[in-house]
From TrEMBL, chains A, B:
Gene3D superfamilies: Medium-chain alcohol dehydrogenases, catalytic domain, NAD(P)-binding Rossmann-like Domain. InterPro entries: ADH-like_C, ADH_N_2, ER, GroES-like_sf, MDR_fam, NAD(P)-bd_dom_sf. It comes from the Bacteria. This is NADP-dependent oxidoreductase. CDD domains: PGDH (cd05288). Pfam families: ADH_N_2, ADH_zinc_N. SUPFAM superfamilies: GroES-like (SSF50129), NAD(P)-binding Rossmann-fold domains (SSF51735). It comes from Sphingomonas liriopis. One of its GO terms (molecular function) is oxidoreductase activity, acting on the CH-CH group of donors, NAD or NADP as acceptor. Residues 15-327 form the Enoyl reductase (ER) domain. Keywords: Oxidoreductase.
Length: 329, 329
């Protein structure tokens, strides 16, 4: 019998394993128009933390006691739709489970790029689109800009680094620990800050951004955001993608350099990647080109088996991943 | 002998009278192209606090021991320029002094609107332009928007209220104390929050902005900014004009609702009015029209005599003014 993770209780602060419960999914026949998918790869992403709260947001909260949702790649094993045949690899949002039964219109074929299927959960999927549209549309990064990106060893951040380099920007990344920093540097970053080194981020950034920053791509909030405010140039654009530092915290964000945005005419813009899905063709065209030119590298941190999924998810909040965090079923 | 206020020392935190020194200006003959102006009205504005610090910003710091500068309206009493004749009323930045000697190209004739000359230091001058371009260009306020403005009884805020009403917005103002709130309401505000009432701003705003806010015009920062983040609608635009709460404070700004800007795709944009001076004609055209239609009211808090100028300036930081704070010489 196929199993799924449900939300057992809503966390206060950092989630714990007790917030999740593994249940058997009752077997059922397909209705007309539905497909049955054996999931191969499941995604865990920081934004899912928000869905664990009972708060109205851009995605509805997970329901207590119901299977959780998220990006997934799987193989169609049974189909009552003209659109998909058994054996076909597809992507969908029926994650957090071994098997998904979905109407065919909630299932998409995989794009035809020369990559492993799980890449469509990371660099060639939602996190990659987040990097692409956040950097180029929201922050309007252009050749010659100095771009600062936090969580630069993460799925989104590592793609920001590489797109920014492909566009002719100078790139400063921040990551935690020597291994991650070395990887970010190998992606082409011109400078990397180790935020776990003990040096305040505002000081470390000042040392490598002597002429300031023009773009900040924010995945973490908090101290990194304040450092970006401290070193933003006139007209700097901040794309606020995530604030992993505050998702589990009841403490307010403390900003010492916020008033600089007046004199420097800086812009801080929050965004959601789903606002850009109608422009996915631009993304696949450019990413496909960079992929062929060898300009895109990626990394994955893989947990094996559905049982390990809460651990994979919780690892996102302790810096447990280099590149995309994935669960292989 | 004409006198001027000089910066005696740089304040830490809130300035004190000891930071200012009143000196005699040595008399001197006019050079070719210069004019001598007897100042009638002097402006004190919150942004001047920034110039008291020895920090590179959009305006250079005041020099220690030198006469301070600021907006002023005066009468030409001697001219060695073709551009101005004795008796003419003019505006310029040689404030904080009884008499200014300036090259004619640093002096402007007064616009020809049917108002008292001191209005060109307030609603029909820099503070008014700040309100106009901040609200309409930076925040892109449009008919039907709910606009929240802090320091709504100030020179800038009171003009924001009236322009927003003229444009068909719903307006919520915040001011300190019953008298100021009553005045803001008399300007047409649909709701007014008394931030001195003891109710947290975030709660008070929630009670009068049941459907959220689309625009926030920020003059104060801090708790007001956080309240606006808490109640911002999807796509809300924040024009950050000033942060009077933090100019004198070493404490960081604490924001509990900052992460909302992601899901709500909010934009926070700092701006400086001088970036819009080439579009002053738009401002005078629209303001002239509203003035004729009786849509603009203003108020002034006047201190008499140059000796009182530091008190007038310090009053800005304790909420001492309703409408524009001015010194009459």
């Amino acid at each position: 019998m196929a199993r799924a993770w449900t939300l057992a209780s809503r966390p206060k602060g950092l989630p714990t394993p007790e917030n999740f419960a593994l249940v058997d999914l009752p077997p059922r026949e397909l209705a007309e128009g539905e497909v049955r998918i054996a999931n191969r790869w499941l995604s865990v992403d920081p934004y899912m933390r928000g869905r664990m709260n009972d708060v109205k947001s851009y995605t509805p909260p997970f329901e207590l006691g119901a299977p959780m949702q998220g990006g997934a790649i799987g193989e169609v094993i049974e189909s009552r739709s003209d659109r998909f045949k058994a054996g076909e690899m597809v992507q969908h949002f029926g994650g957090w489970r071994e098997e998904a039964v979905l109407p065919a219109d909630q299932v998409q074929p995989l794009p035809q790029l020369d990559v492993d299927p799980q890449a469509y959960l990371g660099q060639l999927g939602m996190p990659g689109m987040t990097a692409y549209f956040g950097l180029l549309e929201v922050a309007q990064a252009k050749e010659g800009d100095t771009v600062f990106v936090s969580a630069a060893a993460g799925a989104v951040g590592s793609t920001v680094v590489q797109i920014a380099k492909a566009k002719g920007c100078r790139v400063i990344g921040s990551a935690g620990g020597a291994d991650k920093c070395a990887w970010v540097e190998s992606l082409g970053a011109d400078a990397v800050i180790d935020y776990k080194s003990g040096t305040p981020v505002v000081k470390a950034l000042g040392e490598v951004a002597r002429t300031g920053i023009d773009v900040y791509f924010d995945n973490v909030g908090g101290e990194h955001l304040d450092a970006a405010l401290a070193h933003g140039n006139q007209g700097a654009r901040f794309a606020i993608c995530g604030m992993i530092d505050v998702y589990n915290s009841a403490k307010p964000t403390e900003l010492r350099y916020l008033a600089r945005l007046i004199g420097m005419r800086m812009r801080i813009q929050g965004f959601i990647v789903s606002d850009y899905t109608d422009r996915a063709a631009d993304f696949y065209r450019d990413m496909g080109g960079w992929l062929k030119d060898g300009k895109l590298q990626r990394n994955e941190t893989v947990f094996d088996g559905l049982d390990a999924m809460p651990d994979a998810f919780l690892g996102l909040f302790s810096g447990g991943n280099t590149g995309k965090m994935l669960v292989r079923v």
